[in-house]
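S2.1 Query sequence (YcjX family protein)
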Amino acid sequence: MRQSLAREFNNLIERSRDRQLRLAVTGLSRAGKTAFLTSLVHQLRHAGVEARLDLLPAAREGRLLGAQRVAQQDLGVPRFPYDQAIASLEQQPPHWPEPTRGISELRLHIRYRPENNGLFSSLGSDSATLTLDLFDYPGEWLLDLPLLEHDFFSWSQRQQATLSPQRRELAADWLATVERLDPAAPADEAELAEIARRFADSLQAARNAGFSDLQPGRFLLPGDLDGAPVLQFFPLPGLEDADRQHLESLPDESIYRTLAKRFAYYQQHVVKPFYREHFRRFDRQIVLVDVLGALNAGPERFEDLSRALATLMRSFDYGKRSLLSRLFSPRIDRLAIAATKADHVTPEQHTHLVTLLEALLAEPIKDLRFADVPVKALSLASIRATQAHEVEHQGKRTPALRGVTLDGEETLVFPGEVPTRLPRPDFWARQGFAFTAFRPLSRETRGGGLPHIRMDAALDWLIGDKLQ
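Output structure tokens follow.
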């Protein structure tokens, strides 16, 4: 207890001096969070040696001295597996790091020389330290946060509304079972468990097909709740014209009331603690978005991603920080929104990718700017998987990408043009875009280090003002 109080006291001192930042790396499943965190740590640790960070002034000016991993604050949370991620990239052939399957943290001490170091020189030092706390968590769990806006009745209605034709096809087995249920009938524990399993299977099938707006997230990645009754619920279809008052007056042992109680328990004992213990402590945030994956998957998945992101963005607490809020009630005061895997399209398409990202998140970005929260959209590749080339044919030079596919085939491709606005039906009709998934570059190809695209721009936006 005494050590814990001392640690909290030290953190308060650091935060009062504005020398500590808590950065949330946010993204839905397969957005590239693990790769981003691995690259971020590597770039800071090897700044000026193996890492090129020209867009980060502290690095460009030689003031960034490096970073070290130190003991994190919460010893009950696993440490982000940086060493394992680097090891997977060093294999022959290289592999992408394993995706996040639980919450993890990492604390860095970043050493730098301030632009005006007169104060530090007078104290006998010409350098300063910024403590950066990094938080990672499964993208599947993120979409549980919007559940706090609902009760069981409204959540069931929303789930019904999100069932597109393809989602219905993927959920056919579950729907055939659940649509026969009488909400007023007595609940049978074994029957509910079986229907919940089929519902979870339908969510898994939808995720495998590229859909993003999937709730509850723990059904996809249950962790230590695997098999617990708290995960044995599901939405009830057909409530659009139902008498809500009648349903809520049914006996406690009815199917409807049993499912409603389990939904409420999930909110109170799974979602709220997760939000309270993690998301409310963040100072800054980067939201990673796999725009290309959704674009590649077709119109239903693209619309599904747009809806999921818009819903998710409402769950975070944004606003400017004062000294008191920084100490006792931190809020996210700077936000980056990044389209990942920019190296999977040719360089002249990067600006298109940012424009499309801004169109995809137009309403949330407007709300953030109205609240005077600084927000920046960019495209990046945390760890490059391709090299840019040009192909000459009949006197015309065409941009292309060279890389090794996940199956091990070396290839030269032009993925196509990224639209600069939300795609219209004619775009999907002509199948105007298709990108190939690549392995990360081998060490022999990259020549050491972890080559990237605009990781330095992201770092400058997220922490650059603290390194002045």
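The chain has three domains: 17-136+284-383+446-466, 145-276, 386-439. Residues 3-7, 120-124, 323-328 have pLDDT under 50 and may be disordered.
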